Every structure is written in structure tokens, then in C-alpha cells.
Amino acid sequence: MVIATILLTVLGVGLGLILNAQQAARGFPASGGQDTAPVDAGESRTPCRPETQQAAARAGVPGVLVQVLKVVTKSSTVWICEDSRGRYYYHANRGGEDAPWVENKTALFLNGVQRNGDTYTVTVADGTQFSVNRQRLLILHADGRREEQPAV
């Protein structure tokens, strides 16, 4: 009985090490049970700002978000972040990254972002649409106004 227990323990540990190595080879670092973001071979992924991680946690998003796009305009900075499941999130701060962060006043965190090529778009409940790519931030307001902020 003792020998069987030892053999099963050794097999279990060995299998766990093999699965962990296979997962790491596919771009998923060893997680120890945490939800982590996939990493492309040869690509370093930067975690999103602490303010974004905190907003995501409050919204029930598990794990660490990584930055896929950062766009600076004259009046704001926008980050597009991705979770380990490939879902995208929008986080912007009026005044830029060094301005005070007050969620839902100067900062806006949104989930449900859709990617179409190099453009990320999200529509909020009132119908306002935010669309961002490397060249610009485009806000289509619910009342029909169009606000385009070029990247600087």
C-alpha cells in the first residue's frame, strides 16, 4: 500500500510537470492556479496600469490584464488591455496618465471591447461608441456628435 501511494505521487508530480511544460510551450507561463495572460513567443507583454487592474477586479475580471495598445491624444490617454481569454478592455484617463485618476469622472473602464483589425471599439449603454487605433480616438456620442482626437 505504501509503495502504491509513493508510485502514484511520483506519477502525479511527473504528469503535472509535463503538463506545465506543455502549457509554457504554448505561451502560458506557469500559473500556480492564477489566471495569467498568454505570451507570444519572443514577445514581452506589459501588465496594464495598477488603476486598470483595480478597475478590472472591481468589474469581476479575473487575472492580470496586459497592454495591447496605448494611444496618447492632446486631452487623454487610452489603453486597450487583454485578459488571458483574449477579451479586450478599454481604459482611458482624461488629462493623460499622470493626471488624477477618478473612475467614472476622469477615468473610464469599459469591457465588451471588439477588435476589428487594428481598431478596438466599444459601445456603452447610452449608445456612445469609443473607437481607438494607433492613429486616433474616435468618440461617436449618442446625440450624433463626432469627436475625433488624433494621436500625438
Tell me what you see in this structure:
- It is a single chain.
- This protein has about 150 residues and is an alpha+beta fold.
- The protein has 2 domains: about 1-30; about 50-150, no CATH class.
- The protein is built from 2 helices and 8 strands; from the N terminus they run H-H-E-E-E-E-E-E-E-E.
- Strand 5 and strand 6 form a beta hairpin.
- The longest helix is centred in the first third of the chain and has 24 residues, at about 1-25.
- The N and C termini lie far apart (about 70 Å).
Secondary structure layout plus pairing:
Elements: H1 2-25, H2 50-58, E1 66-72, E2 76-82, E3 88-94, E4 107-116, E5 119-123, E6 129-133, E7 136-140, E8 146-150
The rounded distance between the terminal residues' Cα atoms is 70 Å
> Main beta sheet, described?
8 strands, antiparallel
Task: Give the ordered list of helices and strands.
Answer: HHEEEEEEEE
Find the count of extended strands (DSSP E, 2+ residues).
Answer: 8
Sheet/helix structural class? alpha+beta
Note the total helix count.
2
What ranges have pLDDT less than 50 throughout 5 or more consecutive residues? 1-42
Average pLDDT over all residues: 79
